[in-house]
Design goal:
Layout lengths: L3 H6 L2 H8 L7 H7 L9
Helix pairs in contact: 2-3
């Protein structure tokens, strides 16, 4: 399990690798959202 802080700070390739199977094993979802600040908690 990855910590939220680590996911927020991950490089694009790491982000995709961690989340590529999160929704019906569809890596394109992680690829589309990678590099965006989609997960943010102040």
């Amino acid at each position: 399990m990855i910590r939220l802080e680590d996911l927020n700070n991950a490089a694009y390739t790491q982000f995709v690798a961690h989340l590529e199977g999160i929704f019906e094993h569809s890596p394109w979802i992680a690829e589309k959202s990678g590099g965006k600040a989609a997960i943010f908690f102040p």
